[in-house]
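G., the chain you wanted modeled:
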Amino acid sequence: MIFSSLQFVFLYLPICFLVYFFLAKNKLFVGSKMWLVAASLFFYGYWKVDYLVIILASLFLNFALGTALSQSSGRGNNVNRKMSLIIGIVLNLMLLGYFKYANFFVENVNAITSLSLSLPNVVLPLAISFFTFQQIAYLVDSYKGETSEYDLLNYMLFVTFFPQLIAGPIVHHHEMMQQFKSRRNLSPRLKNISAAVFIFSIGLFKKVVIADTFSIWADAGFSYETALTFYDAWSTSLSYTFQLYFDFSGYCDMAIGAALLFNIRLPLNFNSPYKSFDIQDFWRRWHITLGRFLRDYIYIPLGGSRRTEFITYSNLFVTFLIGGLWHGASWMFVVWGALHGLALVVHRFWKSLGGKLPKSIAWLVTFLFINVTWVFFRAEKFSDAKNVIYGMLNLNEGGMVPTEKIAWLGVNADRLMSFLPAHAVGAILPLFAICLTFIIVTRQNATEMIDQKMTAFKMIYVSLLFTVSIYVMSASSTSVFLYFNF
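Predicted structure as tokens:
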């Protein structure tokens, strides 16, 4: 089940909402929490029931370790406490490493050594990266004495709350539990419901109408076996750049909306990153909670910026190398992380020299860099990335023929050909969509609007977006969110 499905919108979410507040209204507060945990586990297990064993085992282990660390804060043996923390982190990383990187490790060992090692086919459990990182943060916070959660039910709610379970945000314990403990949040609030419907509808439209449309062009371009022309390559790269943007932005909006129905405010995780004027600003806006985790639990423990400039640069580079590998077991993710780490090093060095660019040029340089690096993020192998990059530099010969451009668009060829020639269809539609999208991403975003007054115009606007989205969902299949794969 995904947010952008008819089952979720018309069955799961309304039932979950009504039962939760019915139990709370009748002062069955423990029952309402148990219901929300059970509903969240159902949401997770809907993909594959076997996944429940993994998340529950991880949850119970980390709760036991975190409770022990928290209760011994200020009075336990520091050596033993630190050892317990290290063991907890190692166990979490071993779980993540086995399911996410075992096949990748064996494949590379075989390639280097000419061995024939084999593993049973290891299937990546959904959201393991997110709930593992979230619980590592909980262990560290417990070690620092910043948590005081000794109730298993509350901890289960903290980990499994369905709006943030599958693809984040990666939340801290203190950001969530005080909200769940508040009696004021145990009654439906009209203001939050209207804001939730508003931002959820916008996110739904971003996903099923914009992101899934761009996915047709991006997937076709990256899977095209013949050399891409200059136009084809730029259409491919920009299509993926906007597919990923609206896919993740749409997910974040829907997560915020679903949580708001229960009077829970999730931390901001996406804040118009394509408005950025430098790469550092981009990482303050893109997947904000992942950037926070990398900073607090990798960059700062490595030494941060407290030592020499060279070590600071090394720490930045290593942090984003790890961040790239976190996204998946592929050398393409490593290359992407290395490029962003290098860009942050260059940016920091540039700033240390007092360097400054005009805003328009700074924005263009930043966006072009991001667009190029997304090519490596999306490509399954280096030859795919090379085809797109060479085409963008006009170094390829060949390209899609007119009839292939029609199929590439995923639209009715006969109907379009009755109005426009094939070359025009192949060029105009992606170009129009890309130009329109550039305008959208520079406007005020949904999270900036949810606390504003709900006017009649806004109600009509979101109703239209919601209706169009439901029509598209009922007429065609919707792909899963891209970040579900990470």
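The radius of gyration is 24 Å.

Shout if anything looks off.
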